[in-house]
Specification:
The structure holds two protein chains of two kinds. By secondary structure, chain A is an alpha/beta fold. Chain A has ten helices and ten strands. The longest helix of chain A has 16 residues. A two-stranded antiparallel ribbon of chain B has the order 1-2. In chain B, helix 4 runs parallel beside helix 12 and helix 4 crosses helix 13. Classes of the chains: A alpha/beta, B mainly alpha.
Chain lengths: 275, 441
């Protein structure tokens, strides 16, 4: 619809978060090469690419789980140092990991507040306040949820996902990183997560959405960033490309305008791996 | 979001309906079913040996002796729970008890009089000795914890090295000799007639304990009400309150039915000028021995640390999922280091009890404690896969183990025979637990 104007408007504002020239190497493997990426308030940037393309590694840098070897991170235009998960959370950058990163032996409130426990004036855990806050945030995410006292290993996949999301959204996140948020969910729960992404976007969060599911990405994203073998092929406006263009970028590692007839011929033969 | 409620799966989200079975009733009281089972096992063991021994086992005197024997192991086991919960192990506790016990002995017989110039009857000598022992335990724990958490050497290796090294240090500390003759006040830590708090204080402890039980139940109910959370049915609250208070008062009454040895009682009465003895001689209740009071204090403090403090929460979170703890921004290394510092402090307390009971220290004091402590923790429900285990469970585990040992020796089974039984019970207890957990309770 108004893709052109939207793009201009976005470009004029300072991004909520900007990563510039990020490099990460594991031993001899260059997992992320000179990648620059950003997200604006109220925007979903969908991050796609084949297995081992470096999407998760790039996002682990932003969430503080793995330090970058070089590159800089800017939050609202100011350079920040993110060396560990605490630094990221201090910048209101929250992450929902693919593994969910829940302590299975602890209940939902304990997981939501893990590492950021509320305490009483005597320094003890304020379990009442934490359960109260968890009940409030879960009411929005999973209204039928009642098992606040059970360790989370006894919960269903969707409930566990809701707990992981509750943890990310409760603390006034500005930037949300979602790594394969629907990979382990059934259709109903997937629909629920999609609704939530739209809602959070409307509330003005900037969201990085990593997904294997290209339809998910097309459905939810405003811009789509494609990674290929550790480098960023490009970030494109969703309205200016087709699903095939994105698939081409994922598989060939080339922007649509760079793709040659030869490339397409090889694709027709099915010799390239499809992720 | 309105339509989300409609599509959300409903199964398994409704609170289970109240069941009329015993298990259902216990579930409603929210009492840990495992702990409840262990209490029953403990009672069954004691009653069994009581019957086999012809009704002689369950007497105040025997029960207090059993409890004092178990106290040292139980105290260390409370710390071992946190170490095992966070996926580590500590094999050095026995040697550390030995080293600190020898330190107490050497301090009080040699260093205090000869180096510090403190006369043997200086007041609060025992406080100084205890403080130095606790400091030493904490320092050695911190060193081992540092190597494990910050350098990354597996805890099994570090504490195995600790077991050997520290035991060797015990020898050098006293040049291979046993040391005897501790401070008179320090000896009271070991228990015995004079090392007990007496009848009145025992009732006082029971009163405070009962008030605390009621206050905790009341407060927790009021808290949950205030937030509008579901609460236990009122009958369950009353059952818990009455049972808790009855247990506390019962144990106090039992302990107060243990009396000083007649000769000692009469002698002290004569020294104090209490006048002529009543019919049957003076009867002075011992009440709780100091090691038991120490154990009660440690159990409460460690339970509080494990369940009410951030540190305890982090220990369990790390044990449940180390990556999750790390990604949540928890300082996991410092958390692990602290578990070993706590362990060292608890070893120093246990060493005080053991050395006070022996009025000194021998070279093999604390030998094989690591195995007994780990057994107590594991019988008490601590899982080696991490994240699971409770402080009261480990204390009960120590009592189950020592009840078996004491009961067996009471009916004439020798020490190797006791080991056979305890070994089998250890494996069976964990086996039952594993099956139970697999069934998903």
């Amino acid at each position: 619809m108004n893709g052109e104007e939207g793009l201009v408007a976005v470009a004029e504002r300072t991004p909520l978060v900007e990563m510039r020239g990020i490099n990460v190497a594991f031993g001899g493997v260059h997992a992320v090469r000179d990648v620059s990426i950003d997200v604006h308030a109220g925007e979903v940037n969908g991050l796609v690419g084949g297995n081992g393309a470096g999407k998760s590694t790039l996002m682990r840098v932003l969430s503080g789980a793995h330090p970058a070897d070089s590159g800089e991170i800017l939050v609202e235009g100011n350079e920040v140092s993110i060396k560990n998960p605490r630094d990221a959370k201090a910048q209101n950058i929250e992450t929902i990991y693919q593994t969910l990163a829940l302590a299975d032996n602890i209940d939902a409130p304990g997981n939501v507040f893990l590492g950021r426990e509320l305490t009483t004036p005597w320094g003890t855990l304020a379990d009442g306040s934490m359960e109260d806050a968890t009940r409030k945030v879960m009411k929005r995410l999973n209204p039928n949820f009642t098992r606040f006292k059970q360790p989370v290993h006894s919960l269903s996949g969707g409930q566990r996902q809701a707990v992981a999301i509750a943890r990310a959204v409760h603390f006034n996140a500005k930037v949300l990183i979602m790594d394969e948020p629907t990979a382990a969910l059934g259709p109903a729960e997937t629909a629920q997560v999609r609704d939530l992404v739209r809602q959070l976007k409307e509330e003005g969060l900037g969201i990085f959405l990593i997904s294997h599911d290209i339809h998910d990405v097309f459905d939810l994203s405003d811009r789509i960033s494609v990674m290929y073998h550790g480098r960023l092929v490009g970030t494109v406006d969703k309205t200016s490309v087709t699903t095939d263009d994105i698939l081409g970028m994922i598989i060939l590692g080339k922007r649509p305008e760079e793709v040659t007839q030869k490339d397409l011929a090889e694709l027709e033969l099915g010799s390239a791996p499809v992720s | 979001m309105a339509n989300v409620a409609d599509v959300a799966p409903v199964t398994g989200q409704v609170e289970p309906p109240a069941r009329r079975s015993l298990r259902g009733m216990v579930a409603q009281t929210e009492v840990d079913f495992r702990l409840f089972g262990m209490l029953i096992a403990l009672a069954a063991i004691l009653l069994g040996f009581h019957v086999i021994s012809g009704g002689k086992l369950i007497q105040p005197n025997n029960m207090l002796t059993l409890a004092v024997q178990a106290a040292g192991i139980a105290i260390i086991a409370t710390g071992m729970v946190l170490v095992i919960v966070s996926r580590n192990i500590d094999l050095s506790v026995g040697s550390l008890v030995g080293l600190v016990a020898m330190t107490y002995a050497v301090l009080m017989t040699d260093w205090f009089p000869n180096i510090f110039g403190l006369a043997p009857d200086t007041p609060f000598l025992w406080v100084l000795a205890l403080a130095m022992g606790v400091g030493m335990g904490a320092a050695i724990g911190a060193l081992q914890g540092f190597i494990i958490a910050y350098i990354g050497v597996p805890s099994f290796i570090v504490t195995l090295g600790g077991l050997l090294t520290i035991r060797g240090l015990v020898w050098y500390q006293s040049n291979g000799a046993a040391v005897n003759g501790l401070d008179k006040t320090f000896l009271l830590i070991g228990g015995g007639a004079q090392g007990s708090v007496g009848g009145l204080l025992t009732w006082g402890i029971a009163l405070v304990g009962s008030i605390a039980v009621v206050a905790i139940l009341f407060n927790s109910r009021r808290q949950r009400r205030r937030y509008g959370f579901p609460v236990r049915p009122i009958w369950a609250e009353i059952v818990l309150g009455v049972a808790g208070c009855a247990a506390i008062v019962g144990v106090a009454w039992f302990a107060n039915n243990n009396f000083w040895p007649q000769g000692l009682a009469d002698r002290v009465a004569a020294e104090q000028g209490w006048g002529p003895a009543p019919e049957g001689g003076w009867k002075i209740p011992t009440g709780f021995p100091f090691p038991i009071v120490l154990l009660i204090g440690v159990t409460i403090a460690m339970t509080w640390i494990a369940t009410r403090r951030k540190f305890g929460r982090y220990v369990y979170a790390y044990g449940g999922n180390p990556d999750a703890a790390e990604l949540a921004g928890i300082n996991t290394r410092l958390t692990i280091l602290k578990t070993y510092v706590l362990m060292g402090i608890l070893c120093a307390l246990a060493a005080a009890i053991v050395s006070a009971r022996l009025n000194g220290a021998s070279l093999d004091i604390g030998d094989t404690y690591e195995l007994l402590v780990i057994s107590a923790a594991v019988i008490g429900g601590t899982s080696f896969s991490g994240g699971i285990g409770t402080i009261p469970g480990a204390v009960l585990g120590a009592f189950v183990m020592y009840s078996l040992k004491y009961g067996l020796s009471f009916v004439g089974v020798n020490s190797p025979g006791q080991n056979i039984v305890v070994g089998i019970v250890l494996v069976v207890a964990v086996g039952l637990d594993t099956i139970n957990r697999r069934r998903g309770t």
